[in-house]
Amino acid sequence: MTLPHDLPRQADSAHGTVAEAMDAPGPQVWDDMTVEVALSVMASARTGHLVVCDEDGRCTSLVTLAQLTAFRDGYAYTDQVRLREVAGSGGPFASPVTQMAEAQHTMRHRRLTAVPVIDEHGCAVGVLTRSH
What we know:
Elements: E1 28-30, H1 35-45, E2 49-53, E3 59-64, H2 65-72, H3 83-87, H4 100-110, E4 114-118, E5 124-129
Parallel strand pairs: 1-2
Antiparallel strand pairs: 2-3, 4-5
Protein name: CBS domain-containing protein
Keywords: CBS domain
Domain CBS: 22-80, 87-132
């Protein structure tokens, strides 16, 4: 999904909920996957992000191609670095019932291109994205 200028694709304003504008979560990977393997998964799936999950299948974060590429090109990189070391945890996340205005504000403020949408159990049910 591409949201032109941060607007939801199904509405002309910030009214409505995230559920009305989110896409399927796309590829979900474990947090113990290496950065190299994650980049390969992204290339194969032709996506710019991956939902990162813990061993219980709960979403811990979302990583982007830009984030992983910048990390790989940095001085701290080795081919043994795991996603959990890059991605961190704790969000931000959105709920399907989050108001679009709130989600858009968070994405603009934190300069995010994608936010995982999680259910009450912490499982990814979608991803909210915006244009660059």
